Amino acid sequence: MIPDICSVLDISEHELISGANDTEYHEMKRDARVYRKITETFFWGFTGAYASALVICFICDLAVNHRFTFFPVVFGSLLTAFSFVPTFTRFTEKHKLAVFTGSTYLSLVLLFVICCAKYGQNWFGAAALGTLLGYIAVFAPFLLRRYMPARGRRFIPAVYFLLFFACLALLVSAARITNVFSLPKGLLVVLYAFIPFAVTAVMHILCKRPLINASIDVLAFGSVIYALPRFLAAVFGSVEGANYAVNFADWAHFANGNVYLLILISTLAVSVSLLAAGIAKLRRAR
Predict the structure, then answer these.
(1) Are residues 286 and 217 in the same domain?
(2) In a 10 Å sphere around its CB, with 0-12 CB exposed, 13-18 middle and 19+ buried, how is residue 182 labelled?
């Protein structure tokens, strides 16, 4: 077909192919120009809107109150909005996720500082650490995978859970500023909740068999959930719902015991099934 087309057009095959490539190249350049124009309009449109709002608030605050009253809060709010849309990632090519994560969190922290200073409140620690906990939960896995050296990839779950636990412990400590409770007991609860995650991290480092890992993980999480009432009773004294009495004929009075027994049975059944499947797969591989 190509020779026929070339004969009709009175051109060589090389000229035909080169012309087609040139056409594709020009289309790509045109699409790139359109994309750049759209992104430029998007970025500078939002930037201009934020800047205009900031200038207007600055003038109004000075004109009406003759000093800064609401302007710092507006500044922090607009900076936070800018960090999310259109974001500071425009200024980097290789580290967009890290820049987005850091800039949005720092802008939120600045807004917390401004609000606490403005209104004389002391919730900054709880707000900043609570937000950091959420950021660790969402972004830490991707950032660790992006920046962790290849040799240390197997330690990613351990580092992730350790960061999460440390931040949660700090959050509990900060929450005590506005809510009076026993800090050692609160930290004990955090430590207890961390046990299954620590088991998961250790198994990920030591064992490369997914089914066996899953078996141990299920057993760890199920055991911690089953023992939770006893643990809370040991830490805080009398705790409602710590009774393990079982009677499937009377769910009205024995609901807690029945549910926890079902949790234990389900945990053991799933864990044993996964372990058996893992051992069978290991034997077949040998």
Answers:
(1) yes
(2) exposed
Number of structural domains, the chain?
A: 3
Distance of CA 212 to the CA centre of its chain: 27
**Helix or strand holding residue 250 (H, E):** none
Look at residue 275 and tell me if it is in a domain.
yes
pLDDT over 90 at 144, yes or no: yes
Q: What is the structure's pLDDT at 232?
A: 87
Q: Among 38-47, 71-80, 142-151, 176-185, whose mean pLDDT is lowest? A: 176-185
> Is 60 exceeded by the pLDDT of residue 95?
yes
Cα distance between residue 140 and residue 133, in whole Å: 10
Asked if residue 36 is part of any domain, the answer here is yes
pTM of this structure: 0.77
Copy the structure tokens of residue 78: 């607009």
φ/ψ of residue 120, rounded to 5:
65, 40
Do 219 and 137 sit in the same domain of this protein?
no
Count of beta carbons in the 10 Å neighbourhood of residue 266: 12
Chain centroid offset of residue 157 CA:
13
Host domain of residue 198: 122-204
Residues 164 and 218 in one domain: no
Domain contains 284: yes
Pairwise CA distance, residues 261 & 240, whole Å: 17
Percent of the chain residues past pLDDT 90, beyond the cut? 52
How many CA atoms are closer than 13 Å to the CA of 150, on its beta-carbon side?
Answer: 0
Q: Using 50, 70 and 90 to split pLDDT, how confident is the model at 192?
A: very high
d(CA 175, CA 85): 31
CB 83 within 8 Å of CB 52? no
CA distances from 4 to 1, 9, 14 (A): 5, 9, 14
Q: Which amino acid is at 62?
A: L
